[in-house]
Amino acid sequence: MRSRGTPVIQAQALIGTALGNVTLQKVLGQGELGIVFLAQQSPADPQVAVKVLSPAATQTSSQRAAFLERFRKEINGISSLEHQNILPVFDFGKYDGLAYLVMPYISGGTLQRTLEQEEPLQLSKIVNYLDQMAAALDYAHKQGVLHLDLKPDNVLMSADDRLFLTDFGLVKIVTESQISRMRLLMAGTAVGLLNYMAPEQVMGDVVDMRADLYSLGVMLYQMATGQTPFQGTPLQIATQHVQTAPPSPRLLREDLPQAAEQVILQALAKRPLDRHADVRDLASAFRIALTSAGSLSESQSNRIASPGTTLTSPLLVPRKRGLFDPVWQKAAQEEEGRASVMNTTKEADAFATTGALMIPGGKMGAKSTVKLTEPVKVVQVPVAGQPGSYVTGLLPVLPSAEPSKESNGTTKGNTPGRDYKKLLKKAAVPLLVLLVLTSLGLFWFLHTHPTVTSKTSVLTEKLHPDWQAIAAVQATATANANYILTDPLQQNIHNWPIAQTSHHTYIFKDGAYHVMDNDANHSAPALLPGIFLNRPLAYTLTMQEIKGDDGSINNSFGIIIFLNSQARNGKTVITFYSFEIVNNKGGVYQFLKYDSSKGQSPYSTIWQHPFGREFHQGQGAANTNTIKVAVNGKHFTFWVNGKKVGSAKDNSIQSGQIGMLVNLKGTEVAFSNLQLTNH
Fold first, then answer.
1. What is the pLDDT of residue 604?
2. Pairwise CA distance, residues 305 & 127, whole Å
3. How far apart are CA 631 and CA 638, in angstroms?
4. Is 373 left (phi over 0), alpha (psi -120 to 50) or beta?
5. CA max distance for the chain
6. Residue 423 to residue 402: CA distance in whole angstroms
7. Region of residue 266 (phi > 0: left; psi between -120 and 50: alpha; otherwise: beta)
């Protein structure tokens, strides 16, 4: 039929050809892997689609034989896939050196056409589509089948928005190896084949299901922003996949929450190990990010995307707004102003373990309480020179100014009011400090000079300073100078990860943030999103082991300091410090540095020390421990339950995110009372 060097398939010449039980009627489309025909067995039967595979532009007889052998080996696994979001294979076979597959004919078009018509898609629709594709891929991966050519053109759509993934594993049949894909690239492969290709595919490395996850991440990026992350010629696109970080999706779509952007970027990590564990984790993380930011309604966040999809999470408790949403912040401030007096006792109780506001010359007790005459906020202030010790102070809450009205009843303009309010906020602390200094000076003068009698013979009384007010002002000034962030971790006010998967569990319950490692091969880290910190810094966190194997040398958990990622030689490198408690018999404290570029040994020990009597070893509420790590320049100092236990020096990581981690499968730890201060 063909001689060496001629095109593999002459499409029009095949019209009218019978392949198996069906007859080819017309050409529906042509792609890199072959040609799709409309076919039918008889006029009374439904029409079907037949894909005739095209292994390369030209073939020798030995190449054709190798191609047909690959088809024979792979087609049984592909045709056995049965999932509601995978286009089934009705039949397959060979004909005159060709290989073909018979599938249902779906007339609704492709996801690519939808993206061209609607880009970018609504967030709720993105979640729906992502859930369906992830469900299909997860099923196929569990059957040992990789797709390796995932792109919108290979996602068919029905009229009711049901998706069908096609062409599973066909690229593996058509090309002899991953190396041959690189040859196709150098020969001028179409851009469409490269836009969604994982870096390891471009480089011809060994691939696994995380290559499909990367391609799904590219599609997620495109659905959210209306374009793929990399543009240019085929060679430029391939190079960017390997070496260049994708542009921020939020620059292209302002309503995309920051946490959702991070989910997308993690899926596009250059190293497979840095991506999500699997496609279900990706879909779940994206849904959670949108729900926690208020970008999905409650019905959308709990709705199953399509019949049989199981990617929804019962743990989701949607909030109306995300933490960084200005409307959310405004509402929180207004609520705080209204309820601060009522809730003062409750907030003070939450901090009861760290001390109370001492009134000079007074005694602790009911009579030393401060009567509140205006809205206040209770804060904790670290005591200088006494690590782990705090006093409680009161911060005044500025009341919301009502819009003033002119004599004619009209409302004044907003700009002067806002400027005046800003000026008041800036001047508040200096004025209060000046007031304190003036009061102290006046008290000293009157205390050291005799009392005089006025001309009206009225005796002048001695001034008794209001020590409560003085202490409150001092606490206010110190808190403003020292505090970076405080989070009791009783509820999710800072967008911490919330998930329950086969790999890890993150959930708020019983007044704490619980992290559990469910994976024997990976730790369970939790990072505070959106906040990057520099030296100097003091990080304090309370932790309690709920359950775990205290007989294992790997039963460790603790805090993450300065986690960051950067590109080195075309690869993404993750680095951070961790202070960990190895909670077993003869346990130790460890201060470690993690560097993913170190291969099989990414951790290095900077300092370690055995437990002392200060540590409450074991599980349960009676064995809660508070850890504090202070960073100043290259110096690290470590405290446990208020006692200094050691110090270390290292200057290799200057800044990054903070968080916590659990390292052993089956270990669950409850974290609470996180505080970040300027050290």
1. 92
2. 8
3. 9
4. alpha
5. 128
6. 17
7. alpha
89 — phi, psi (to 5°)? Answer: -105, 115
- Tell me what pLDDT residue 430 has: 63
Rounded (to 5) percent helix, strand, coil in the chain = 35, 25, 40
Q: In 3D, which of 611, 673, 599 has the Cα closest to residue 645?
A: 611
Separation between Cα atoms, residue 302 and residue 290, nearest integer Å: 12
Q: Could you tell me if 174 and 33 are in contact, meaning their C-beta atoms sit under 8 angstroms apart?
A: yes
152: Cβ–Cβ under 8 A, 6 or more apart, which residues?
110, 111, 112, 114, 115, 219, 222
- Per the prediction, the chain carries an average pLDDT of 75
Note the pLDDT tens digit of each residue in 171-225: 776 665 444 444 444 444 444 568 999 998 888 788 899 999 999 999 999 999 9
Task: Give CA–CA dist 626/638, Å, rounded.
Answer: 11
Nearest-CA neighbor of 383 among 198, 270, 538? 538
What the chain holds in terms of domains, given with CATH numbers, is: 12-104 (3.30.200.20), 111-302 (1.10.510.10), 326-401+415-450+462-476 (no CATH), 499-677 (2.60.120.560)
pLDDT band for position 345 (cuts 50, 70, 90): very low
Is residue 543 within 8 Å of residue 660, measured between CB atoms?
yes
Which DSSP state fits 274? Answer: G
Q: What one-character-per-residue DSSP string does 476-492 give?
A: HHHHHHHEEEEE--SS-
Structure tokens that stand for 41 in this block? 């067995």
Residue position matching structure tokens 């959702």: 260
* Interatomic CA distance for residues 245 and 229, integer angstroms: 9
Per the document, the length of the chain is 679
Contact assessment for residue 543 and residue 666, using Cβ atoms and an 8 Å cutoff? no
Q: Note the pTM of the prediction, 2 decimals.
A: 0.47
Q: How confident is the model at residue 468 (pLDDT cuts 50, 70, 90)?
A: low
**pLDDT attached to residue 565:** 79
Q: What is the C-alpha to C-alpha distance for residues 292 and 319, in angstroms, rounded to an integer?
A: 6
Tokens representing 434? 């000046």
pLDDT, tens digit, for every residue of 609-655? 999 999 999 998 889 999 999 999 999 999 999 999 999 999 999 98
What pLDDT, on the 0 to 100 scale, is given for residue 484? 84
Q: What is the DSSP letter of 497?
A: -
Chain-centroid distance, C-alpha 339: 32
CB 190 within 8 A of CB 243: no
Residue pair 674/489 in contact by the 8 Å Cβ criterion? yes
Q: Could you give the CA distance from residue 320 to residue 295 in angstroms, rounded to a whole number?
A: 8
Query: How far apart are the C-alpha atoms of 515 and 508, rounded to whole Å?
Result: 9
